[in-house]
Specification:
Strand content: 15-25%
Radius of gyration: 15 Å
CATH class: Alpha Beta
Helix content: 25-40%
Order of helices and strands: EHEEHEH
Number of helices: 3
Low-confidence stretches: none
Shape: globular
CATH topology: Alpha-Beta Plaits
Mean pLDDT: 87
Number of strands: 4
Number of domains: 1
Length: about 90
């Protein structure tokens, strides 16, 4: 799993990046996404950041990418709506 957190001062850049990251994962907070990990997905994200978004950075803009291994995924504590993410849903 990959956690991506970002902050852009420019609304257009923030919206564009949000739409881009949304293709790979799901939003867990306003500017935080959870992405299913694969080397190919990570490489695609890093390449797009380098080619498109890095040049648009202003003074306080940032993107943080955290790779969470399988062992650490078990250490994540979720509350509220996020607690349902780990539950299996069975619909009849």
């Amino acid at each position: 799993m990959i956690i991506i957190a970002y902050d852009f001062t420019d609304n257009k850049v923030r919206t564009k990046f949000s739409k881009f990251i949304n293709k790979f994962g799901k939003k867990v907070q306003y500017s935080v996404y959870e992405v299913r990990n694969s080397p190919r997905v990570l490489q695609n994200i890093l390449k797009e950041i380098e080619l498109t978004y890095k040049q648009l950075f202003q003074g306080s803009d940032s993107i943080l990418i955290f790779q969470v291994c399988e062992g650490d995924k078990k250490k994540i504590v979720r509350y509220g709506y996020a607690a349902n993410d780990n539950e299996e849903v069975l619909i009849f």
